[in-house]
UniProtKB/TrEMBL annotation:
Leader sequence residues: none
Protein's organism: Streptomyces haneummycinicus
Entry annotated with the keyword RNA-binding: no
Protein name as catalogued: Gfo/Idh/MocA family oxidoreductase
PANTHER family: BCDNA.GH03377
Keyword Oxidoreductase recorded: yes
Pfam families in the cross-refs: GFO_IDH_MocA, GFO_IDH_MocA_C3
Domain (Gfo/Idh/MocA-like oxidoreductase N-terminal) ranges: 50-134
Keywords: Oxidoreductase
GO molecular function, one term: nucleotide binding
Amino acid sequence: MTRKTVRIAMNGVTGRMGYRQHLVRSILALREQGGLDLGDGTVLWPEPVLVGRREHALKTLAERHGIEHFSTDLDAVLADDSVDIYFDAQVTSARGEALRKAIAAGKHLYTEKPTATGLDGALELARLANAAGIRHGVVQDKLFLPGLLKLKRLIDGGFFGRILSVRGEFGYWVFEGDWQDAQRPSWNYRSEDGGGIVVDMFPHWEYVLHELFGRVKSVQALTATHIPQRWDENGKPYDATADDAAYGIFELEGGAIAQINSSWAVRVNRDELVEFQVDGTEGSAVAGLRDCRVQHRSATPKPVWNPDIPATEVFRDQWQEVPDNGEFDNGFKAQWELFLKHVYADAPTTGTCRPAPAASSSPNWA
Ligand SMILES: NC(=O)c1ccc[n+]([C@@H]2O[C@H](COP(=O)([O-])OP(=O)(O)OC[C@H]3O[C@@H](n4cnc5c(N)ncnc54)[C@H](O)[C@@H]3O)[C@@H](O)[C@H]2O)c1
């Protein structure tokens, strides 16, 4: 086995996603498993170079995890020829500029979503990256959730017959920050800082719908800012200028219709923080982050509408659990592995499902 070191500039690793999911659960986890076996006698050994604005925070992280290199100078890191890949998990508003610099420096690119807060910005980045001839990818972690992998298995096995509709419920109550701290960073609630639930969640819905059910042909959404004032990390009140709920309808190629509610102003009365119900001619399923339950056409009850009597059946008990039938790795790590294989082993596929799109057409993998 030859060991090939891959130096990856990781920007935004002091943040929630950058630290927990990408650094600890993906890159450091890959090192703990001995690197990534490319299957051709090579093992990739990822070496993170932490990048950020606060030297002290980076130093603390580097020391905690035995990481040798960190820097507050992005330009210098990008000018370093030994760094192959640039990864970005910064706040959304800081992403475009950093990605443009990394593309200009000829680095391969892997980034959190969204690449931009509007279509023009996203297309510009995708075109720049394609023109530079680099490999580039955007995080699509939800495809690797056990619940959605089970859903994909059902689709591939023909369980649903013709899929008619998909209904998604995503959300939970995000505290305003006054009498209880908010559990999400305050920039998410200011549109001038790249916040908003559409910008945050619709990138996920696009690839989930596309990969599982068909390309999104049209989207309509009513957005709202239900909570107009919030309190930030320092306890200071601020105006919430971004949408905190979106009620969307998506028309899909193949004829299915998806409706997805996304909200940071709902209280959870579901089994999981996100759930999708899929109804097809032959059966239905409800999938969450981990679990998936089904009801086949042959086991469908025949309720009769009669408001004068109490419900005669416990409808939720009439569904059957889909078994795991396998082990599920962390989705972020699984996608890092795919991306690294895409760069270093020329792996031809994207995500879990679709073949690599033409380089000119996709902001995701090329
Ligand atoms: N894939 C997912 O499921 C998922 C989930 C949450 C967030 N995200 C995305 O990840 C990115 C980071 O989100 P997060 O929740 O980790 O945010 P966060 O606020 O916890 O972290 C933001 C990071 O960006 C850095 N940063 C750089 N420039 C900054 C600036 N001008 N102001 C403030 N911070 C700055 C911070 O130091 C920190 O390291 C966002 O683009 C978000 O859309 C993805």
